[in-house]
Amino acid sequence: MTTGRAITPKSRREADSAAYRLAGTVLFASVAVILTALAFEHIGGYVPCPLCLQQRYAYYAAIPLLFAGLVLVSAEKPRAAAMVFLLVAIAYFANAGLGVYQAGAEWKFWPGPDSCSGDQGVTTQAGRLIDQLKAVQVVRCDEPSFRLFGLSFAGWNVIASFFLFIGALQAAFKAVAGPRT
Hints:
Blueprint: H1 9-42, H2 50-74, H3 78-106, H4 114-117, H5 126-135, E1 147-148, E2 151-152, H6 153-176
Antiparallel strand pairs: 1-2
């Protein structure tokens, strides 16, 4: 959509600068969140459940995509950068949904996935049962291992993913935006 005004090189640089700053902030926050999760796992000893590991995928995908988007902004390819930032926003929105699903299972609003919440298909043969019990360490998805201010890791991930979604979406719009005079 055009407003009838020409986009000058200076106004294009200003829009690129805003997109760059927003995307850089989202990148920094994404790295901080995933490093925090890894620190809780490797330093704090909190073993993540399968859903917790799935929620990390958005961060693992977003971090290199955000780098690529920053390169595209620097290369003055605003539409391509906007598409990358939009993809990151979609990933974080979906990740927030996954976090809501897990947090809801933790609060017993709905059942969690069978793979990490319920019956694990235990055998009825006594000899095999003991072997299975020794071999399997299941981290349940419907029981939080940690809460801070009433929120589990999944709840905090919902908040982080939502704010990162907003930031990536703003970066996408700023990448293609002209001046706002």
